[in-house]
Amino acid sequence: MLLAFRASRYAPRSLTRALLWAGFDAQWRRRAKPARRLEDNLHRVTGLEGAELRALSRRGMASAARYYAETFELGRMTPAVVDARVRLDDPHDALSRIKADGRAVLALSHSGNWDLVGAFACRHILPVVSVAEVLKPREVFDEFVALREKVGMRILGHEGGSTFRELIRIARTDNVLVCLLADRDLSGSGIEVDMWGHGVKVAPGPAALAAATGAPLFPVHVHYERLRGRARLRARSRWGTVLRFGPVIEPADAPADDRVGHLTRAWVQFMSEAIGEHPEDWHMLQRFGWTETNG
Questions:
Q1: Which residue among 42, 84, 175, 249 is least enclosed by CB atoms within 10 Å?
Q2: pLDDT band (50, 70, 90) for residue 2
Q3: pLDDT digits (tens, 9 = 90+) for 69-115
C-alpha cells in the first residue's frame, strides 16, 4: 500500500486506476477474504444470493478500487476538478443550519469517497476535522494524514479517550465540521442498533460528541454517479461523487436518560436506507459489527 501510494504521485492516472482495479478484481475472482467479507455484508443488506450477489460484490470491489485510485490522485487534483466531481444533495437545507451555527457533527459511512467530499467541504462549507485509525506500518497512516491535510483537513489519530476530549474542545471552540466514519465501531463500546433487520453495533462517537457539545448532528451519505458529456470532461473522470445530507438531529430533543442511544438510532435510520439504495458503494470489506456471528 505504501509503495503504491508513493508511486501514484508520478505514475499516469490511468495506470494507477488500472493496477488498482486489477488487484481488486483478482481478489474478487479468487474469493479472497476481503471479497468474501464484502459478499457476506452485502447479503445482509440486500438479501441477494448466488449470481446476483456475486455481480453486486464485483461492482462493490470496483467501487473500492475507484476510491483508492481517486484518493491517491487527490493531491494532484485542482480545485476545479474536485468541484466538478462532487455534487451536493441537500434536500433538508443542512448548509443553512451549519453556516448559521458555524459548526456541526457529521456521521458518515464507509461509502463512496469521503476524502474527496472532505476536500470539497473544506473549501465550500467549513474546515473538516476527522479521526483516523492509526494503521500499521505507521508510514501508511502518516501518508494518508499528509494527503488529507494537503487538501485542508485536520486529522487526529485514534488514541482513545484523549482523542475524544480533543474533539470536544474543537467542536466547542472552532468553526468546523467534525466528520466521523461511524458505521464500523472501533471503540469497543458500540451502540447496538437495527440495520436491515439485523442487530449491529456502530460507533458512539458522533452522538456522544453532539450530546457533549450541543452541536447539531447530521447523517451524511456519499455515493458515486456516472458522468457524461461536459460534466465528464470537467471532472476528468467517468464518475462523480454525490454528497447527500440527511435531516438535522437536535441533541436537545433527545431524552436525557438515553441521549447517545437516541441520537445514534436517528442517524442510523437515514444511513441504513441510504446504504440500501447504493450498496455497491459501501466499502465494507472488513468484519462488520453484526451482533450475530459474522463468518
A1: 175
A2: low
A3: 999 999 899 999 999 999 999 999 999 999 999 999 999 999 999 99
What's the pLDDT at 179? 98
Spatial separation of the C-alpha atoms in residues 211 and 153, rounded to whole Å? 23
Residue 234: how many CA atoms within 13 Å on its side-chain side?
Answer: 14
Range of the domain at 169: 79-281
Total tally of structural domains belonging to the chain: 1
Q: Is residue 287 part of a domain?
A: no
Tell me what pLDDT residue 6 has.
64
Q: How many CA atoms lie within 13 A of 295 on its CB side?
A: 6
Residue 196 lies in a domain: yes
* Separation between Cα atoms, residue 39 and residue 32, nearest integer Å: 11
Percent of the chain at pLDDT exceeding 90: 82
Give 88's strand partners: 243
d(CA 41, CA 38): 5
Three cell numbers at 78?
A: 485542482
d(CA 208, CA 247): 18
Cα–Cα distance, 264 to 267 (Å, whole number): 5
Residue 83 falls inside a structural domain: yes
Distance in angstroms (rounded) separating the CA atoms of residues 190 and 199: 12
- Asked if residue 118 belongs to a domain, the reply is yes
